[in-house]
Amino acid sequence: MIIDSFEETSMSIVVGIDEVGYGPILGPLVVSACIFSDQKPQKEGGMWGRLQRSVGRQKRGLGNRILVTDSKKAYSTSSGIGHLERTVLAFSNLSCVGDMKFSNFLSLQDPYALEQIKEYPWYSKLSGDSLSKDIYATQNLANNLKEEGLEFLAMMCCYTDVAEFNRIVRETENKSYTVLNSIVKLIRRAVALASLLNEKDITIIADRVGGKMRYSNILSEITNSGVEVLSENEKLSKYKLISDGRIVEIQFEVGADNNYFPVALASMNGKYIREVLLRAMCEYFAEAQPGLKPTAGYYVDGCRFVEDLEKFGLFEKVGISKVDFVRIK
To answer: How many CB atoms lie within 10 A of CB 95?
Structure first.
């Protein structure tokens, strides 16, 4: 079994993948990947332990450090996106120089995302204000990574808004394919990055998609040499395959976003992106109908929000079809 310190593997590229927004009926699905290179894979302590000077796992006692944890623990409607934003931008700023707008931030992670968001009028303001920067947090993180022989290589995502989500479900008659298709795309991008860096072996850890136990069929889209099943049980599904001449070991594990640093970071990145976009949507309709209560997009409250939009005639007012606003369940 692959553990957070990677003591049982000599692989130097590790990728964490997680999805955010699979369950709701409103707003985008975001599947995110965070990629690291570890020059000291045998070192004990795991990434949380090795980066404890710049990163904390719990909100309490952080001081000047940033938080890396499962996004469900980092975010709440009452506390807002502060921790998500500070952490995600600290990592993003390791490789980005100068001011950045959210639209730039998103397009760097998914070059095709802007083609989707331009279809929705509430995202038009996202190219406005620059994202905040915590220079100290970024520098502290950079120094700590260097000391530990770790390098943060990339933060990527596959963005799927409602219209595209519905198109995939209609074509495949399989809701889970919306996530699995995004995971395959991210794996291919991670392999391409490893090829560029001339790294041979890659470890990919993903949170399990719902209750799905078997992934060999979807993973076969990545390789022509077949998929070796190493384990398939209630908690862990693990595979090995060859892609672009590189050994890729992939595992889908229950609770991976709580157990593995790169997966937790991917979870926070996806949650940050989704919450910024969902907030833009709610603010847009609140401007059109003052007093309209915002929504997180989950079924019960999402239905309430849709009913409010219909009651006030807001679909017609803004020129958006309900078919492209509410997901197929």
So the answer is: 11
